[in-house]
Amino acid sequence: MPNMERLSEEIRHAVQFETRYPFGHEPLTATQGVWNSWGVHLDTLVWTWIAMAMMIVLALYVRKRIIMLPAARSPQNLLEMVWDFFDGIAQDLVGHEAKRYMPMVVSIFFFVLFGNLFGLIPIFIPYTRDVNTTVGLALFSFLAFTYYGMAKKGFLGWVTHFMQPVPQLAHTLEGGLKYVMIPILFVLFVVLNIIEELARIVSLSMRLFGNIMGKHIVMTILLGLTWFLSFIFEPLPIFVWLIGLIASMVQAMIFALLTLAYVAGAVGEHH
Amino acid sequence: MDPKLMVYLGAALCMGIGAIGPGLGLGNAVGKALESIGRNPESSKAMGGTFFVGLAFVEAIGIYALVVSLVLIFLKG
Fold first, then answer.
1. In a domain, B7, yes or no
2. Cα(A179)–Cα(A213) distance, rounded to whole angstroms?
3. Which chain A residues have a beta carbon less than 8 Å from that of B52?
4. How many CB pairs under 8 A join A and B?
5. How many separate domains does chain B show?
6. Averaged pLDDT, A163-191
7. Which of B66, B73, B76 is best to mutate for the A interface (most A CBs within 10 A)?
8. Share of chain A above pLDDT 90, in %
9. Contact A102, A172 (CB under 8 A)
10. Count of domains in chain A?
11. Which domain holds residue B38?
């Protein structure tokens, strides 16, 4: 397998906090300590900036020539299609408040989508295959739904949702059993709810990271086989590429949808 | 025994055992989807999006196993 050494180096890089410099440059001595202690992946950072620049340029381009009836294949129509898809789901989940959360959800979608799609282009670095990016995104998602929950329900309402099923359960208990069971249930459910909230960070970030990294590994191995298989089946890389395309889009959609669902759960009346 | 061998063995077992559950789940989901399309062919359009999202959720469980074995191999191996 030709690329195995490079691939394993890349995986090693992606799963740990270790600074790697793009273009093989050594850092300046003054910044070295800071960079190393923070473990900045400069290649990830640079490609994140490139993606953000591309997104801003695209958004400004569409914003400048916005029209009532866009052509079928115009960028505006594409963006509106994505917006309508998420808006439809948001309307179902949070009703008329959807407008408030939509910009965040669609921004997350495009940020993750660009990162995933970069993996399909040679030279480009898919920054979502870096565990640091996905954990950062998941932390942002966590902070967002915690903030929106607090903003909607107030601090007290937000705290009480951690003891959620206990008030309802308390009505079903009778007699002296009540005084024994309620404290036990209270502690149990508070701990469970806190773990549930924190597990969302892990599950969101590891799902995205694992999917993109796995896609990357599978694509590298299959494309490494192309030379051997091309005698039998010439257009193999196109199909490998298509699998990657579908996985990229589905994963971006899932990340945004889950963020939306968590926000909806945090601001909803009944948890 | 060589600790490195144990790490690789753990990673391989993690991926292998971790693939059983998602495999069963994916098979079940696709089977049920095909069954419902067979009964009611018009439902296939409405089902498409939810179906793929559901598949991705099931797949994610296998992906967690992959992440654990990657961490085992590349951080502990």
1. no
2. 51
3. 250
4. 43
5. 1
6. 80
7. B66
8. 24
9. no
10. 1
11. 13-76
Residue A261 tokens, joined: 């669902």
- DSSP 8-state secondary structure symbol assigned to residue B24: H
> In this structure, is residue B41 part of a structural domain?
yes
Question: How does pLDDT run across A4-41, given as a tens digit for each residue?
Answer: 777 777 777 776 655 555 444 444 433 444 444 455 67
Nearest to A115 by CA among A249, A269, A268: A249
Q: Which tokens belong to A264?
A: 């909806």
> pLDDT tens, B21-36?
999 999 999 999 999 9
> Helices (H) and strands (E) in chain B — how many of each?
3, 0
b or e along A174-193 (b: 16 or more beta carbons within 10 Å of the residue's beta carbon)? Answer: eeeeeeeeeeebbeebeeeb
Q: Count H helices, E strands: chain A?
A: 9, 0
Domain CATH code at residue B42: 1.20.20.10
Nearest-5° Cα angle at A25, A31 to A55? 85
Round the CA-based radius of gyration of chain A to a whole number and report it. 23
Question: Angle, to 10 degrees, between the axis of helix A42-64 and the axis of helix A75-94?
Answer: 100
Residue B73 and residue B7 in contact, taking contact as beta carbons nearer than 8 Å: yes
Q: Is residue B38 a part of any domain in this protein?
A: yes
A interface with B, Cβ–Cβ < 8 A, is 8, 11-12, 15-16, 203, 206-207, 209-211, 213-214, 250-251, 253-254, 257
Range of the domain at A149: 4-267
